[in-house]
Amino acid sequence: MVLIVVAYLETGFGFSRGKLTTSLASTVATTTIPGNVFNVTTTIGYVYPCNSFTLELPTSNSVSVGNCNVASNSILGLWVASGNSSREFVTIKGADNKTYVNQSSSYSCITLYKNFTAPAQDYTISLRTASSSGNRCGSAIAKLNSTTVLPSTVHNIVYNGDFNSGQYTGWTRAGAGWGETPLNLSAANAEGCYLNKTWSNYNGTFFATTYTCGLSVAPGNLTSSQFYVNASAPFLNFRIISPYNNGMYVEILQNSTPRIAVHYDTFNISQGIYAVSTFANASIPLSTLVNRVVQVRVVSTLINQHQNFIAIGDFALSNKPVQQPGIVTNITFMNG
Q1: Per-residue pLDDT of the chain (336 residues; tens, 9 = 90+)
Q2: Are 91 and 101 in contact (CB under 8 A)?
Q3: Which of 18, 46, 160, 232 is 20 to 30 A from 287, alpha carbon to alpha carbon?
């Protein structure tokens, strides 16, 4: 697109004689040609490739619109996040006037919505946000890329810490213990998928667990994406259900190496405080890892031991701990 702006500057205004200026977007050096008639500025707009395109909205009740280009027929992945807003809305329309995506979700953290076929042409992408829902996963995002894998990045939060998308997006599973997806608390309670009493004392809708609604459990590790420990929020808070067992614990990793390991026992029924389906508030101090990049890993090495399961979620960084007393059996700090 070429924009021509012509302005005649009369000497009566006290300005010097004009000159001819040509600038090509922001990537081409400015060329100045001496003259004494008028100024001419020419800008050639740059259209970004759709296989690496992001719209971001930090505020609720807002709209952002952008354009990108597909040079040859492609399969693109659309990633979305409502962030601090209660809902996001994305439409993608081609130059052929066809709407290729018209979607909405309440995924707070960035999640793969779908893959779609994109013919070679220009596209207009619109991202809209609804009202605020609190501080969850930052800005709303609409991201197009040529892969179905979330790009590696370091977050300033525990990414997908409440498993709100209903998927393990941003987490890595090793072993069969955690199942294909987190457990839906409401559905599990409605279907009787719990021990003794219904699941309770949990903020979110989905949680990670090695409990499979049966009599057996399987081993497995669950590892988060990388996140940065800021001095203003040196505590990792979460909710957990776990009996005491040497083979079940929560770790903090730095450079894939354990730095902190914590064992819990929330089955302290003798005190009448916790039950096997009631989540307890837990906190891990990260003050020794301030200004470091870390991950949280939940470990279960047990096989076919009924009731020896972990249920966990609602991960968040905070400036103060929320831990309930009596649930930590031991905590180990490793030098690094």
Answers
A1: 333 333 333 333 333 333 333 333 333 343 343 444 334 433 344 578 999 899 988 888 999 999 999 999 999 999 888 888 889 999 999 999 999 999 998 887 777 888 899 999 999 999 999 988 765 667 889 999 887 665 566 777 898 899 987 889 889 999 888 988 999 999 999 999 988 889 999 998 999 999 888 666 778 899 999 888 988 899 999 999 998 888 899 999 999 999 999 999 988 644 444 568 899 999 999 999 998 889 999 999 876 556 788 999 999 999 999 999 989 999 999 986
A2: yes
A3: 160
DSSP 8-state assignment for residue 188: H
* Structure tokens that stand for 99 in this block: 């709407």
How far is CA 60 from each of CA 53, 134, 155, rounded to the nearest angstrom? 21, 10, 21
Rounded distance between C-alpha atoms, residue 146 and residue 73, angstroms: 11
Domains along the chain? 2-44 (no CATH), 48-145 (2.60.120.380), 172-333 (2.60.120)
Total Cβ atoms within 10 A of residue 117 = 10
Q: How many Å apart are CA 98 and CA 95, to the nearest integer?
A: 7
Rg (CA), the chain: 26
- 191 φ, ψ to 5°? -95, 0
CA 186 to chain centre: 23
Give Cα 175 to chain centroid, integer Å. Answer: 23
User: Please, where are the H alpha helices in the chain?
Assistant: 185-191
DSSP structural state of residue 25: T
